From TrEMBL:
It is found in: Membrane. It is a multi-pass membrane protein. Pfam families: MatE. One of its GO terms (cellular component) is membrane. Belongs to the multi antimicrobial extrusion (MATE) (TC 2.A.66.1) family. Keywords: Membrane, Transmembrane, Transmembrane helix. CDD domains: MATE_eukaryotic. The chain crosses the membrane at residues 27-50, 62-85, 106-126, 146-164, 171-192, 204-223, 244-263, 283-310, 322-345, 360-383, 395-419, 425-446. It comes from the Eukaryota. It comes from Salvia divinorum. This is Protein DETOXIFICATION.
Length: 470
């Protein structure tokens, strides 16, 4: 009798698993598209600048990297706090709070952008102080000064994306991002070549494209019936409990930045190796490849973050746990496929970036390591997404600090400079950090009491609602 009784239960569990998987993929695929399209804006600009000359390309490349480290990654992290707040509020049917949280997020990122703008304005001085080439630093400084208005647009854009994502509204973001991407190509051609603004034109095109995307999404939020319950107009409540928002936003930013900066640090360390030109070139190719694949993981992480936050806010502990299990299965499957493709194309991938045989052979040697790091990075990205849905940003920031700066970077230095494994050793160090991060996140998820997480989510929503009502 027990076997007969268990079969329907098993079928129901399988059915629930499949339904959850379909729900997450319906969210994740558009989110992957959005992240890829936004990432392509910078890539397209660099392609146009590359036709102006080596100095202009070097300056724009350094400027883009500097902007990502000191600006975009910080704003992305701050905006990610809305994944917890808006996601749980939506699950709890406190729809009006989504608009309040989003406006509060916009207030915070705009204020922060003024400070980041000062850093960007002094890009050339900072780079020279760090020992970079004067001519390249000067070119990078000009590029980033023209890019300053994009800071404000990017921060707002991240808030709007989270506002829509947590309501499972993703198609409008794909449409606006695609339209912006197509128009960006025309803008770059017009400003860089036709009007002869050079690299400044590429920076201006970035600014215009980010603001166009913001305006399009803002118009949708303001006039669409799908957002009518969640956005009821501008509210002075956005200026309430800023400190409470920062308690979640600051750890969220640290969580993302600590990981992002460690990868950039590996490229900088490659410049200290023997034959730095070769090592830096290969590590830069590796990093660019890693970021391309990472866009898939970001989409999956955003989907599970939304699902977990929605279910916790709705009081469904079992569904939240199921969402994490499904996301882990999807991430593992995606990681195996991407890893296999990475290994299969190892002998031709380097040819896309260089004609130098030495670079092509080195890239082929490091690609299996990239396959492993992509698998681990994708898995941890999904688990980190689930953590954001729960509001574990502070815990994850501590985990990332330990994984990357106690394990990854020291191991990278040891393997590269003491055991003389060069760039391969640097990337092995990153794999060590990713392994620690992934294992710790798995253990935390396995030991989580999801009923307690529901209680915390309900308390967070009620406390915020009570504060804003007051």
């Amino acid at each position: 009798m027990s076997e007969q009784g268990s079969e329907p239960l098993l079928r129901n569990n399988d059915q629930d698993f499949m339904e959850e998987g379909k729900h997450q993929l319906r969210l994740a695929v558009p989110l992957v598209a959005v992240n890829v399209l936004l990432y392509c804006l910078q890539v397209i600009s660099l392609m146009f600048v590359g036709h102006l000359g080596e100095l202009q390309l070097s300056g724009a490349s350094v400027a883009t990297s500097f902007a990502a480290v000191t600006g975009f990654s910080v704003l992305l992290g701050m905006g990610s706090a809305l994944e917890t707040l808006c996601g749980q509020a939506y699950g709890a049917k406190q729809y009006q709070m989504l608009g309040v949280y989003t406006q509060r997020g916009v207030v915070v990122v705009l204020a922060l952008s003024f400070g980041l703008a000062v850093v960007w304005y002094n890009t050339s001085f900072i780079l020279v102080g760090l020992g970079q080439d004067h001519d390249i630093s000067a070119e990078a400084g000009v590029f980033n000064r023209w890019m300053i208005p994009s800071l404000f647009a990017y921060g707002i854009l991240q808030c709007l994306i989270r506002f829509l994502q947590t309501q499972n509204i993703v198609l409008p973001m794909v449409v606006t991002s695609a339209a912006t991407g197509v128009f960006h190509v025309f803008l770059c051609w017009l400003l860089v070549f036709k009007l002869k603004f050079g690299s400044r034109g590429a920076a201006m095109a970035n600014v215009a494209s980010y603001w166009i995307n913001v305006v399009l999404l803002a118009l949708y939020v303001n006039f669409s019936s799908a957002c009518a319950e969640c956005f009821t107009g501008f509210s002075k409540e956005a200026f309430h409990d800023i400190v409470g928002f920062l308690r979640l936003a600051v750890p969220s930013a640290l969580m993302i930045c600590l990981e992002y900066w460690s990868f950039e640090m590996v490229v900088l360390l490659s410049g200290l190796l023997p034959n730095p030109t070769l090592e830096t070139s290969v590590l830069s190719i590796s990093l660019n490849t890693c970021w391309m694949v990472y866009m898939i993981s970001v989409g999956l992480g955003g989907a599970v973050s939304t699902r977990v936050a929605n279910e916790l806010g709705a009081g469904n502990a079992a569904r939240a746990r199921l969402a994490v299990s499904v996301a882990a299965a999807i991430a593992a499957s995606e990681g195996v496929v991407i890893g296999a493709i990475t290994v299969l194309v190892r002998n031709v991938w380097g040819k896309l970036y260089s004609n130098e045989e030495e670079v092509i052979v080195y890239v082929a040697r490091i690609m299996p390591l990239l396959a492993l790091s992509d698998f681990l990075d994708g898995f941890q990205c999904v688990l980190s997404g689930a953590a954001r849905g729960c509001g574990w940003q502070t815990l994850c920031a501590v985990i990332n600090l330990g994984a990357y700066y106690v394990v990854a970077i020291p191991c990278a230095v040891l393997l590269a400079f003491v055991f003389h494994l060069g760039g391969m050793g640097l990337w092995m160090g990153i794999i060590c950090g990713l392994s620690v991060q992934t294992v710790v996140l798995i253990i935390i998820n396995l030991r989580t009491n999801w009923d307690d997480e529901v209680t915390k989510a309900v308390n967070l929503v009620q406390a915020s609602h009570g504060m804003d009502s007051y």
